[in-house]
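Before the break, one more example. Copy the sequence into your notebook; we will annotate it together after we see the structure.
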Amino acid sequence: MKPGRYFGLVFGLMNKTINMIMKTFFNALILMVIMGLSSCINDNVGPEGPMGPQGEKGESGYVFEFENVTFSSPDYEVILPFPDNFESLSSDVVLAYMLWDVVEIDGKDTEVWRQLPQTILTEQGMLQYNFDFTMLDVRLFMDAEFDLDQLGAIDTDDWVVRLVVVPGDFWDSSRIMSKEIPYDELKESLGLPDITIPKNTIKRR
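Here is what the structure looks like once it is written out:
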């Protein structure tokens, strides 16, 4: 065999070997990047909350109620999904209310709902309940000037939450554009149905 042909064969084998090594390296690198991105995405998603009943349709909106909503460490946030058969529009607006108390007025139990965001003053400092929403779900979360691990069950456990989906065209033209809208006023404006008051309601701060 001629020296030139011999060296050409050797270099050809070396090139094939290098190409195989590089291909294996890049495949492993891509796999590591995908796994890393998946881990980051999962870390930022809070636990999914309890599934609510089918939304009650009003004259101009929907209301969904979730019971036993609990904020847990370390994220202190809850995802409340809309039912699979509910179709939301990008123009819809969601308002969130938490049941704060049930008081007796004139011999009748009356619900006390507070709209989010809701900020209260505790012995440790300011505490806020807040939310954001997409077309698929609502995320409730807590924020504070102190470590949320200091909170007790009265602040984190067994909340009752109502989500009201308001059509965008109604929201733009209605008088309910005020900064804070009492639930009873919103209920009347949208013609929302009556929902039975949950039993064993916890009295909050």
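The first helix runs from residue 3 to 43. DSSP finds four helices and nine strands in the chain. Try to locate both features in your own notes.
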